[in-house]
Design goal:
The structure is a homodimer. The first copy, chain A, contains 21 helices and 26 strands. By secondary structure, chain A is α/β, with parallel strands linked by helices. The radius of gyration of chain A is 28 Å and the shape is elongated.
Amino acid sequence: MIKTPQPTAASALSPLCRSIATVSISGTLAEKLAAISAAGFTGVEIFENDLLYFEGSPADVRRMAADHGLAIVLYQPFRDFEGVSAERLARNVERVKRKFEVMHELGADRLLVCSSVAPDAIDNDALAIDQLGQLAQAAAQAGIVTCYEALAWGRNVRTWRHAWKLVDAVNHPNLKLALDSFHTLSLDDTPDAIASIPGNRIGFVQIADAPKMQMDVLEWSRHYRCFPGQGDFALADFTAQVVKSGYQGPLSLEIFNDGFRGAPTAATAADGHRSLLLLEALTHEELAKEKDTTGATLYTPPAAPTHTQWQFLEFAVNADARERVAGLLDKLHFRRAGQHRSKDVTLYRHGSAAIVLNAEPDSFADAFFQRHGLSLCASALRVDDARLALERAAGFGYQPFSGRVGPNERVVPAVQAPDGSLNYFVNEEPGKPTLFEADFALTDVDGPTEVGPITGIDHVSLSLPAGSFDSWVLFLKSVFGLQASAAVLVPDPYGLVRSRALCSVDRGLRVVLNASVDQHTAAAETVRAYHGTGLNHVAFSTGDIFRAVTEFEAAAVPLLRVPANYYDDLEARFAMPTDFLDTLRQHNLLYDRDEKGGEFLHAYTETLDQRFFVELVERRGGYDGYGAPNAAVRLAAQARQRARAAREQAE
Amino acid sequence: MIKTPQPTAASALSPLCRSIATVSISGTLAEKLAAISAAGFTGVEIFENDLLYFEGSPADVRRMAADHGLAIVLYQPFRDFEGVSAERLARNVERVKRKFEVMHELGADRLLVCSSVAPDAIDNDALAIDQLGQLAQAAAQAGIVTCYEALAWGRNVRTWRHAWKLVDAVNHPNLKLALDSFHTLSLDDTPDAIASIPGNRIGFVQIADAPKMQMDVLEWSRHYRCFPGQGDFALADFTAQVVKSGYQGPLSLEIFNDGFRGAPTAATAADGHRSLLLLEALTHEELAKEKDTTGATLYTPPAAPTHTQWQFLEFAVNADARERVAGLLDKLHFRRAGQHRSKDVTLYRHGSAAIVLNAEPDSFADAFFQRHGLSLCASALRVDDARLALERAAGFGYQPFSGRVGPNERVVPAVQAPDGSLNYFVNEEPGKPTLFEADFALTDVDGPTEVGPITGIDHVSLSLPAGSFDSWVLFLKSVFGLQASAAVLVPDPYGLVRSRALCSVDRGLRVVLNASVDQHTAAAETVRAYHGTGLNHVAFSTGDIFRAVTEFEAAAVPLLRVPANYYDDLEARFAMPTDFLDTLRQHNLLYDRDEKGGEFLHAYTETLDQRFFVELVERRGGYDGYGAPNAAVRLAAQARQRARAAREQAE
């Protein structure tokens, strides 16, 4: 279907048009433009190489963009303009005029010029001002707005303040300031005074996030940028400054990321768009705190739920798998608490932890089981307002889902997570039947009669294909408002695993994401077993882990064995009473302590179906981590378990 | 099979024992020790975590190592010993005594102590000398030799000179200097005066290479070290200094490499061992140049061939594939030059380029075809002395191969490359029949009657699985003595491709290695098509590329189309006459120019069987590269070709 061509001049843009540079995603130019449009962007930066490699003219690119409803908001074909000899300047002016012609064909009216990086660039502000002035004059004749940006590794100009000083001195309507969050925040430079620049003197704003890294800033920029919300930069602060300046041009993602270059085009573009929405929402919150109203045109979704916790985890099973999972739950002293009123679905409970085993034929769970085998097909999250939570998720572009509902069953709003599993939003209203009461024939209506050692679900840990890691971070941040800790690399005996924990402000919801860097780690094997993303483990919380492991040992729960050397090292690292250490050793318990004295005691079961295992955790004194120093010990023990299983199978 | 336990004390070592740290390879400790022993090492450093995660005692580790004939030459369980308060020192001495006990159990008599990295480490050489003295005294009581090493990111001590100053001042037989090539060469520090240290005061020498990178030295060290010869450090210089000092202890590889952590254990260990052999050989050459004889105990293989060139490329084909390849060769004006005397093998020639198509049933080529389909199953290299070349290759641990030979056929020495393909070594002796004369019924015994535009083989480019990239670098460097240029990242529309060129000193042999970082690049598709390493393309050289492409266009050779925008950009980048540019455009020729004015003109055919293509290259004025700036244009055009083919198949 060919759409009617739209006007593409950037001057026709609405305030804060959302844009992305074509370099940010994979594919041919045609594939990129289609995906960028489908994701919801209205603007695009054409990266010079994408034009160069394209089998058609700049006018063809303009038509193709217009057919997709995209304005070409920027072109950046020029480097090292200023700080040069008079002779070189004359050549540069001639060259830039040729580029202006290309821009006319492209229908782009903004040209980005970065501060010179040439080793011989002359360090003389007066000269730079004069030469940028000549650029502005040439641009005025061509009807182009040039935008001057400080590169963090520029030869002489490295900060936005310096670039602004030059632009301000030139004082010409065809030379404006360009800002890029990466260049400012990578240098730990403050964006604080950006608000004081007149908004109409800012010509363009590029946005990029990045993980904090100790490396050369050029390399960091070229390979590790990511979408807002996926890295560690304080981007809402930065963007609030931009908005307060009165700037009304595009916010444009310019992301150089090695992973994105090989990731699926459409999914990456969609993540880019929702990352801008999330950034706008957070910027709006930032401004609202200051009672500043300049952010009125920013995207504002319903607020993220303030309290979130697991209501239940739902596993897709068949009869065989149900028997194995039910067997483990039984040993962990879960009780069979109810049977679904109309479906082959069983509810197990222990403390506030609830597990649902779904064997209903021809259901979503069934389809999930066909594809992934025994797997976590849905997570139900208890929120303040389920309808608002769904609205928020849908606003960020996640697909709402409606399943088959039987008589008397509650309609539960849900969205699909990046792996296609469901996230239900549940809220219970006073005086009405609970979800479990509505859907299940409960065997213990008034709550548990026995009280076991498990109190609830502490966290859920997922194994992901490497390419979906950042998509999940964005999903959990945007839908649930979770906060992410920095990613860590964990050594498995067969390679490295990237791991990142996210949790809600009140710590009611904790999710750990793992993606293997290498082919043969436990996390990689898990992804293979599930044919995609899958549950790595569920951690149940307990207030008394010694009681819990004692009970579970007696019930023949297969607990993972921890080598004796681990305890010798523990003794060397932490001062602790001998009998305490002995108890840890005796029960294969792992231990960690934080700087404030908070303690973490945890144990693992062996792995079920080569897929997932159960962790038991006791947090003491406000410990807020996940025992990361012990991950390598656990992974080594699991590798031995896998090797043993493989040997037994071979024999 | 259990071997008789060997003495494991390091003092019993022969000079320059070859060792590796267990952290350098993947697997469980048991798997690591088996692989290290099988690779030929006689020493091993036990990394502390490997002991910690092991389900057995230190004495068990000692026995396991001894069963494999391995001495445990070092243990490094201690950090931040010196530069501390008196109270902290007392604790450190107590702790290190416990570690000495573990070392006694392990049978290790060398302890590595790195310079302190603690932010509060006291910067006072006198204090450090005093405290290292106390360490030496404790070590003397335990019969342990402590080795003090400057970490490149140490708090106060960062260079080997500084560490040596402290060790020399302590002046105690139980405190020696430890050297690590990474810590010296990463700082661009010179190893030049190491030779002046008395060799018996050096306690341990660790060796690591690394690619030159602009990044934080700690991160660089922890993730990017590699085996000697795989990186960019001048390690033979460093090692020559060590040897000249009179040091006679282990040379030990301590390689922190993210890729090795996920790579196959045995193959990585084997590469490690041969990388040490190669380093010794190069060090020996270094010393021989100076007429220094201290390197007498170093490994000295037969010299690498001084002149190497392609004799022929041999493709595994069946009847169908032969028809397609022969069709392309025919269009490229290769002539059918001979038929093998006893096998279903045909020879094609054009200029000095020779291609052999092998369809012999039940042969090595047949097995290769079964596994990889149409593929390059062997490369024959013309060398000065084939027997010596084979000896050299076998000495580095590459597998010699003997195939079935018919009557009157020449026995051709060969080794297997890392992908299992063969490398034949051929030398022709005056007055004897050439290989082609011996093996083939030649149709043009006196050489070609017609002279075509192709003069020979310029280079061969391979697509590799990422994990085998560094193995190939080592193979080509050790067997043929090739030199490697720095690796570059090339952007394919669907991801990044790592590429590295190697060539012989006289430029007679050039090989380009490519490994895809991402899943869907052309290089990744090629690896999938071949089920492993495979030919990416063959580049034929010509002295007149305009004549060549004109001829080949007339012969309907399918040449890759280059977008018009490429030529507009070329004009902007290089000053060139309009008619020259027009000729390039007309013939879809790519162009590059080096800083000295050398020129590279090249063109590509479309891809045959979704596997490989042919490049035509003309080098002018000593151009020594491969047109790297044009790789992205070519990859984009190939991506379009693939997409077109996929569309046509779908229709």
